[in-house]
Write a structure and sequence with these properties.
Length: about 90
């Protein structure tokens, strides 16, 4: 639990930094975050695919937390990779 709290803290620091940074100094993840918070437009992105990075990683993060909270990491590791509905949903929503 402490690890997840620390991860959230670091993630939030990155978001706050992205709000203050010049666009030219933003990482790809920060560009995507700023794009989805209407700070930058699509023509300011390094590449159009960067726009999909933030929502993809947010969904992946939710999926992993759910997996951990359900205790699935104690079960067969292969089973989790056979269930790819989350990834299909992300791709279908784009």
């Amino acid at each position: 639990m402490k690890r997840l709290q620390r991860q959230d803290y670091v993630e939030n620091l990155s978001y706050k930094k992205a709000e203050r940074e010049k666009v030219s100094n933003l990482t790809l993840f920060q560009q995507s975050y700023c794009y989805h918070n209407n700070r930058i437009s699509d023509n300011q992105l390094s590449h159009l695919v960067v726009a999909n990075l933030f929502p993809f990683l947010q969904e992946l993060n939710k999926f992993i937390r759910l997996w951990i909270n359900q205790g699935n990491y104690e079960e067969d590791d292969v089973r989790i990779f056979n269930n790819y509905e989350v990834f299909k949903n992300i791709l279908n929503n784009q």
